[in-house]
Amino acid sequence: MASSSTVRSAVDAHASNLGPHVVGDVHGVVRRRWQTTYIRRLAVTDALVVTAAVATAQWWRFGGSDAQVQSQSLDNVSYTLISAALVAMWLGMLTVFHARSPRVIGSGPEEYRRIATATMRLFGIIAIAALLARLDLARLYLAIALPAGLLGLLVSRWMWRRVVSYKRAHGHFRTSVLAVGAHHSVRSLAESFDRGTADGFLVVGACIPGHSRRVDEHITVGGRPIPVLGSENDVVDALRESGADTVAVTATEHLGHHGLRQMVWDLENHEVDLVVAPGMMDVSGPRLEIRPVAGLPLIHVEKPSYHGASKFGKTSFDIAFALFALVLVSPVMFAAAVAVKLTSRGPVLYRSERMGLDGKPFQMLKFRSMVQNADTQVASLMERNEGAGILFKLREDPRVTRVGRVLRRFSIDELPQFVNVLRRDMSIVGPRPPLHREVEAYDGDVHRRLLVKPGVTGLWQVSGRSDLSWEESVRLDLSYVENWSMVGDMLIIAKTLRAVVASDGAY
C-alpha cells in the first residue's frame, strides 16, 4: 500500500492548488461550489448584455417613441413588448443550447459555438415566425440587436474566461483527476493536461491495472510526483486518498465492457464525474460523434475535411481578410520597407522557397531582416544551431540587422505574406511553411502537414513560436490539419494578435 506520507503530501499539494478550501471536500463539492457561483454570474452578465443590445436596437431605430408593430394578424403590439419577449427568448435559447453548462464554461471554442448557434437559431425562428404571422418587424431593429447581442455575449464570455484562466494559473478553479490506466497512458494524459493549464485539469493520483496497493510508487510528470494508489479495483478508496473529483479512464482494454460498467455503478453514489479517454490524440471537435450501435456507445471518427464547401469558405475568408489586412497595415509596411532600404544593402523583400499544398514549391515573401546573402552563411553557423529537430534557429543570429530585430520582434517582417495569401499559395491560418530541405527530412506522418496550405499564422504561432520543440511543433501542426474549422481559425487569429503584441517566442 502507498505510504500515508506520500499520499498526504500529494493531497496537501493539491489542497494548496485549490486555495483556502478544505481538503476533505473530495467529492466535487469544491468544484461545484465555484461552478455554481460562476454560472450564476454568467447568467446575470448574459441578461445584462442581451437587454442592453435589444434596448439599444429599439432606441436607435425608434428613439424615445413606443412604436407599434405593423401586422395583419395582431393589433396594438408595441416594440417594448416585442423587446421584452426577444430578451426572454434569447436567454431561453442560451439555456436550451446549454451555453452555461459546467461541461463547457471556460472552455473557449465550444462555449462560443453554443452561443453563436443559439443566437442564429433564435433569429432564424423569428424570421420564420414573422413571415407566417405577417409581422412587419423593423429590419434595422433586428440588424442592430443581432450583431450587438452576439458580439456582446462573446466578448463577455471571453472576459470571464480570462478570469478563469487567471485563477487556474494561480492554482484555483481546478478539476482534480484520478487517472485509471497503464503507466504510459497516465503519463500521456497528465502531460496533455499540464499543457492545457487554462482548462484546469490536474492529475493528482493514478490507478494502474495489476498494481498492488502495498507498493509505494509514483509517476513523475513535469517534476511533480503523481502517487499510484492501487489498481482499477481500488478507484473508490483512491478517490478518498487523492481528493479527486473526476475519474479519467484510459484502461478500457484492461477493464473491458463489464469492468467499465461496474466502475460506473461503483461511482454512482459519489459526487464525481467519470470520463473515458478514447486514446486518440489530437482528434476532436465535429469529427467525433457518439452513436449507439447494438447497445454499445461507439465513437465514430469522421474523415478530415479538406475539400468542398469548407475549402471554399476558407479560401473566401483568406482573400477577404488578406485584402483588409493589407489596407490596414499598408502604412506600417511602407515604413518598414523604407527602413530596410536605408539601413542595409540588398532588396527590401526576401524571397524564400517554401513547400505549399501537396508539396508544391512557392516563393514566400518577407521583409528582409538579415544581411544580403545570409543563406550562404548557414553552413558556417550550423554548429551554433539552437533549433529543434531539423529546424535551424539562432537566438542571437549575427546575420540579423538592427532593423531586422525590430521587424522580427513584432512579426512585421511577415506582413508581405498576405500577398502570398492573395496568390493562393498560403492561407491566413495553417501549418508553418516548411523549407524544401525540411520536407526532404520528413518521415512518416509528418507529411500530413502538406495536406493543407501553410499559414501566415497557426497553432505553432500562438503556442510558443521559436521556443517550441520539434516534436511539439509537429504535433500542433498535425492537430490543426486534423481538426481545422473556421471558428478555430478565428480563435487562432485572436491569439496571434496577443502573442505578437507580447513578442512571445519571437527571435
From TrEMBL:
Any single Pfam family the record assigns to this protein: Bac_transf
Any one GO molecular-function label of the UniProt entry: transferase activity
Keywords: Membrane, Transferase, Transmembrane, Transmembrane helix
Topological category with respect to the lipid bilayer: Multi-pass membrane protein
Transmembrane segments: 42-60, 80-97, 118-135, 141-160, 319-340
Keyword Acetylation attached: no
Primary localization: membrane
Residue ranges of every copy of the Bacterial sugar transferase domain listed in the record: 314-501
Cell compartment(s), UniProt: Membrane
Family: Belongs to the bacterial sugar transferase family.
Name of the molecule in the record: Sugar transferase
